Amino acid sequence: MASSETATMGSEIRPASGSRRRSSAGRRSIRVTPLGRVMLRVYPECIPVPSVPADACMLKRMKADSLKDVSPAEGQRRVQEGALLVDVREPNEYQEVHAEGALLLPLSEFEARYAELPRDRELVMICRSGARSARAGQYLLDNGYTKVVNLEGGTLAWKEAGLPTEEGGA
């Protein structure tokens, strides 16, 4: 398609006129232009983790609307006051580095094993960047747990804040 053409989903290609027009089907047209150079910034939390099974990243019946995020410093304070730090990454990720004292409960086993977690103790959920732990934390809230927070930024943020970490285990 040339740079001066406009395409509409489900319609023919037309020369671009510089403005957006609606096709006969009522859909908006899209102007296609050459992109040239595209600069991308890669964030560590967006890098795929190939060793994690795809289904481990998706638990059934999950929402992400009412779980509270806490900073690494706040998460550490809560752990020092008695909260349990729960790491939902896979064992190989956990062995590389994890927050000191974190309990491993992989997301791939979470639905089958979440009942092992105490209901009477606050839980601080952690993963690599905060996304998987947010899903696991919301799942706990949806299943009757009331004292659950998510560590914003995950292990990456914990480590960046200079908080204590360990290697090995699992």
UniProtKB/TrEMBL annotation:
* Top-rank taxon, per record: Bacteria
Using the UniProt annotation, give all residue ranges assigned to the region (Disordered). Answer: 1-28
Domain Rhodanese, residue spans: 79-167
| Bias-annotated ranges (Basic residues) | 19-28
The record, for SMART domains, names: RHOD
InterPro entries, alphabetized: GlpE_sulfurtransferase, Rhodanese-like_dom, Rhodanese-like_dom_sf
Specify the protein name: Rhodanese-like protein
